[in-house]
Design brief:
about 140 residues; alpha+beta; Aldehyde Oxidoreductase, domain 3; four-stranded mixed β-sheet; 3 helices; about 30% helix; elongated
């Protein structure tokens, strides 16, 4: 059975529950789902080098699964316009215990945000669009 169930970059709205269902596993006692949403601005515009981003997400997901003992992992990231309150990224991880699920989901999210070729531009209501500088994961 494949541990990485989804490594997706899409222009379509994200289906959070579908991503969660992908990591459902009878050996798992804990499932963590992180949903990153647009906040404080009217919208964000995401651009990606899609093929490279998908492959990098898959590699990062495989590494997180191995390092944290995850049963299953799924990641879906948006491109295009993501409006206020709308999900832009979903990371789901299941593991035998909650500690591994939380740690694995957090590590994978931090890796995706810092290493995958996806860029975002903020579109505030009262000013010009601005590119958001990338951030490294916090220890």
């Amino acid at each position: 059975m494949t541990v990485v169930r989804l490594a997706e970059v899409t222009g379509e709205p994200l289906d959070v529950d579908a991503v969660r269902r992908l990591v459902s596993d009878p050996s798992s006692g804990g499932t963590v789902v992180f949903i990153g949403t647009t906040r404080e601005v009217e919208s964000l515009e995401y651009e990606a080098y899609v093929d490279m981003a998908r492959e990098q997400i898959r590699r990062l997901a495989e590494a997180a699964a191995q390092e944290h003992g995850l049963s299953a992992v799924a990641v879906s990231h948006r491109t295009g316009t993501v409006t206020l309150g709308e999900p832009s990224v979903v990371v789901a991880a299941s593991a035998p215990h909650r500690g591994e699920a939380f740690a694995g989901a957090r590590a994978l999210l931090d890796a995706v945000k810092s290493q995958v070729p996806i860029w975002k531009q903020e579109h505030p209501q009262d000013g010009p669009p601005t590119w958001v500088e990338g951030t490294l994961p916090k220890p």
